[in-house]
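Friendly challenge for the regulars: who can give me the structure tokens for this chain first? No prize, just bragging rights.
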Amino acid sequence: AVNKERHFSCEDCDGNVSGGFDASMSQIVLCQNNIGNQAHMNRVVTHELIHAFDHCRAHVHWFTDVRHLACSEVRAANLSGDCSLVNEIFRLHFGLKQHHQTCVRDRAILSILAVRNVSKEVARKAVDEVFESCFNDHEPFGRIPHNKTYARYAHRDFQNRDRYYSNI
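First reply, four minutes later:
Bragging rights claimed.
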């Protein structure tokens, strides 16, 4: 269970970071001075909850293995809505072929550079090494929730998950 008083902290943050996951406290930090609207907050919370999920599920070595961090950043960028078409248009980034994958790669690299003191080449190499398997890992959603309809489908799938597995 998530205790919103213990597991979420709203703080003023330096720079343009919108949030973060503090593994030592199992706490999500929301940067109240850098989140401008509800949609942005929803993406940040989802992004950080994916890190929390990975922390519990995969025992991520956040500070000793950059590939662990890269995998969680790929998953968070892929599943949180960071790379939605609307967000990419606002960033003036858009394309047709493999655009979602390109965005996920770029956002994961930027996130690594924001939290670790590594070169862009090291971050890019780590993302490239883990990209395929981590991009295709859609847990806990089961699918990429591209919009509200897909999010409802993912929630329905989650609710029916036990029924499906009990018949196997």
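The mean pLDDT is 84. The CA atoms of residues 113 and 132 lie 20 Å apart. Your move, everyone else.
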